[in-house]
Amino acid sequence: MRFASPCRSEGCAQWTGTACGIIQRVLDHIDRLPDPPRLAETLPPCTIRQRCRWFSDRGRPACVACDLVVTDQAAAGS
Asked: Measured between alpha carbons, how far apart are the two ends of the chain, in Å?
């Protein structure tokens, strides 16, 4: 699931004290894939990048994760 709502930082169980813990776990998972996706030279269009916690915390590598997480629950069959 991709979160587009404002970050609650200390009010969230995923907060590490300095950053969102979810994106680091996702990036660690991506690094363990047999053929991990890589970020293109140009960032893909994004409507939330300016306020994206993941981008703020991890920069360009966070954009790789967005293609691998569910962003539309209806499309995921739920």
From this structure: 12
Has residue 78 got a pLDDT over 60?
no
- Asked whether residue 28 is assigned to any structural domain, the reply reads yes
Average pLDDT estimate for 38-64: 87
72 within 8 A of 66, measured Cβ to Cβ: no
Total Cβ atoms within 10 A of residue 62: 21
pTM: 0.74
In a domain, 29, yes or no: yes
- Provide Rg for the chain, Cα atoms: 13
For residue 74, give every residue at least 6 positions away whose Cβ sits within 8 Å of its Cβ, in sequence order, or none: none
Domain enclosing residue 21, as ranges:
9-66
